[in-house]
Amino acid sequence: MNVLEIRNLTKTFGDFIAVDNMNLSVNEGEIFGFLGANGAGKSTTINMISSLLRITKGEIKLLGKDIVKDNKFTKMNIGIVPQDLAIYEEMTAYENVSFFAGLYGLRGALLKERTEEALEFVGLGDKRKALPKSFSGGMKRRLNIACAIAHHPKLIIMDEPTVGIDPQSRNYILNSVKKLNQMGCSVIYTSHYMEEVEEICTRIAIVDHGKIIAEGTKEQLKSIITDTKETWIGVKNAERLDLNALKQISGVNSVRLEEQTVKIVSKGEINNLNGVIQLLIRDQVEISSVEEQAPNLETVFLTLTGRNLRD
Amino acid sequence: MEFWIIGNKAVLLVYVIFVSYSVVRGASPWEILAYLSYLCVNMAIPILRKQRRLQLLGSALSAVLVVVFAFRLNTVFILLLPVNLYEIVLMSGGRNRFALLLGLVPLFLIPEDESLIYLLAASLSLLFYYSLRVHTEKLEKIGGERETLRLDLQHLKQSLSINKEYIRQSQYTSKLEERNRLSQQIHDEVGHAMAGALIQMEASRRLFGTNPDKAAELLGNAITISKEGLERIRLTLKDMKPRSEELGIHRLRLFADELSANHSVNATVTHEGDLDLVTPLQWKIIHENATEAVTNSLKYGEATAIEFEIRVLNRMIQSVIADNGKGTEKIVKGLGIVGMEERAASAGGTVIVDGTKGFRVTTLLPFQKGG
């Protein structure tokens, strides 16, 4: 079943079209990635899903219910981690989470239990009495996440949750996204960090100028550009190479030698590196480096739009 | 239009506050309560945008409040009345004359020394109301006109594409005729030559035993005729061979050359990947989008160079038309862009228009490999 379904969604600000006739569906149990440069329309879309912005045209359905008509249902089932921190610096971590969970209607013992649970989940259990003022950027981000998950939403939306934080906190957040997903949450994750999206997302949409220009698993997206990969092997004694034998290895399309580097083009889904290396060792070729030139999402984005993600 | 009404109210409210301060030197708590409640009610009106009835109710409530305040606290409050009255008329879609009359009614109910200033406030508010009304109506009319124009355009486009289809058909027919002519030519010239050669060879076989010299001569003739025939076949076939894979990119090159010749731009075409995979329909879309994009570049972009780039990727065909002109920060989607999008969408593709570094129109068309 689709957790989220977006049909012909459009948002205009005056003449400017921020989101342009977007169609999208997020399946249950997915981590769905939104990849796009700044200003591509990711946050606008998310703000419409979370009903912070009015929809100009089109419709959004959450678990089969229209988000405008069943606004309360939507709000109870979505957890949002906004791009700009939404926590109160003058309240303790515990009070922050409990305040937001209270907004979702949690009361009494359940409220306490869920607040504790959310704080433990993001690793701030021992900081419950501390004020966010004293927190690092990463801890604030984690608290921000705790505030969004205490009410056990079906869909969690994370809008650039790793902007401006240290690597440890980033790993922590990425892992907690995976953990939330294993616990049965669907997640929408936006970022302009390609590596993060590539690491955690099960399906990805590339957004540019308010449109989805490509959508699919990362393998599907990469195969838009090419089905092949290139392995570059630097060698010391190239004269010992048996190029014809290399071509016989399964999956190899072509082999060429450029100065001291053998460039092997092979089918993307086949791993034949073992065979290649074994052959080189048999021929007593001295290997100085091995490098794989497979396309990544950044290349896909660059090729399709002609621009860098961080332009 | 709400902003104008809010502004109107705000100016009048400031005046009322100013007057009551300058007369009494300080306002009573009741008066402050009056200002605040007036503010609350009137701020609620634009917020309740979606519920017409509540808005009307709010405006009416505000009118009643103003009258009450005017009688109980300070007559100057009555200045705020006409705006609310006009607002009610505007929202309920009433007649203009009615609005004018409604605004004049309180004139008979207030003391004479206030009536002049009231008249001023009422007429200014009326002016606001009139201009708002006129502009709203104009906007609606323009919107309607735009819609009909759009429909007209769509019809025209449709008939244009039918015409184009007709032209394509007739081009196809003429191609067939050309092919017929060529096969006739092969039959007439090559066929006869081959028959001639065959006769010579037959004769040479008969003479082989008795007159070897003659036989050799005849065989030599046959070889010459055959060579000529073969050469002719090659020439004819070379003329006839369709170069469909070259048609698309050729046409684009021709287009680019014409551009360079007729306008002061330098147009270049580059391509990458296997062009055989591009279907005629996709070429058509690429070409039409290129024409559209170039028109735009020449018209608005002040470009001196235009670059066409066709890339056949693994599962997508990408056509980029980029110029080095001034581009634009804000892209307004006109009929041109919508047209390109529609064409691309008809083949399951998308169009990205980017104006940050000159104009750059990218058409992406997906295709199935091996299908």
SSE layout and pairings?
The complex is a heterodimer of chains A (311) and B (371).
Chain A: E1 2-13, E2 16-27, E3 31-35, H1 42-49, E4 57-62, E5 65-66, H2 71-77, E6 78-81, H3 93-103, H4 108-121, H5 137-149, E7 155-159, H6 167-182, E8 186-191, H7 194-200, E9 203-208, E10 211-216, H8 218-225, E11 228-235, H9 243-248, E12 252-258, E13 261-267, H10 273-282, E14 287-293, H11 297-305
Parallel strand pairs in A: 3-8, 3-9, 6-7, 7-8
Antiparallel strand pairs in A: 1-2, 1-4, 4-5, 9-10, 11-13, 11-14, 12-13
Helix pairs in contact in A: 3-4, 3-5, 4-5, 5-6, 8-11
Chain B: H1 2-24, H2 29-47, H3 52-72, H4 81-92, H5 96-104, H6 112-207, H7 212-240, H8 244-262, E1 266-272, H9 280-301, E2 305-312, E3 316-323, H10 335-346, E4 350-354, E5 360-366
Parallel strand pairs in B: 1-2
Antiparallel strand pairs in B: 2-3, 3-5, 4-5
Question: How would you concisely characterize the structure shown here?
Answer:
With 311 residues, chain A is of the alpha/beta class.
Write up this protein.
- Chain A is 35% helix and 30% strand.
- Chain A is α/β, with parallel strands linked by helices and 311 residues long.
- Chain A has eleven helices and 14 strands.
- The longest helix of chain A is centred in the middle third of the chain and has 16 residues, at 167-182.
- In chain A, α4 (108-121) runs antiparallel to α5 and α8 (218-225) packs across α11 (297-305).
- A six-stranded mixed β-sheet of chain A has the order 6-7-8-3-9-10, with helices on both faces. In chain A, strands 2-1-4-5 form a four-stranded antiparallel β-sheet, covered by helices on one side.
- The longest helix of chain B is centred in the middle third of the chain and has 96 residues, at 112-207.
- Chain B has three domains: 2-110; 169-240, Up-down Bundle (Single alpha-helices involved in coiled-coils or other helix-helix interfaces), CATH 1.20.5; 244-366, Histidine kinase-like ATPase, C-terminal domain (Heat Shock Protein 90), CATH 3.30.565.10.
- Chain B is rod-shaped, with a radius of gyration of 41 Å.
- By secondary structure, chain B is of the alpha+beta class.
- The model of chain B has no long low-confidence stretch (mean pLDDT 82).
- Chain B has ten helices and five strands, in the order ααααααααβαββαββ.
- Chain B has helices spanning 2-24, 29-47, 52-72, 81-92, 96-104, 112-207, 212-240, 244-262, 280-301, 335-346; strands at residues 266-272, 305-312, 316-323, 350-354, 360-366.
- In chain B, α4 packs antiparallel against α5 (96-104), α4 runs parallel beside α6 (112-207) and α9 (280-301) packs antiparallel against α10.
- Chain B has a five-stranded mixed β-sheet with strand order 1-2-3-5-4.
- In chain B, a hairpin with a 5-residue loop joins β4 and β5.
- Chain A binds chain B through residues 15-17, 20, 208-209, 211-214, 223-227, 303-307, 311, and chain B through 311, 313-316, 318, 320, 322, 330-333, 350, 352-354, 356, 360, 362, 364, 366.
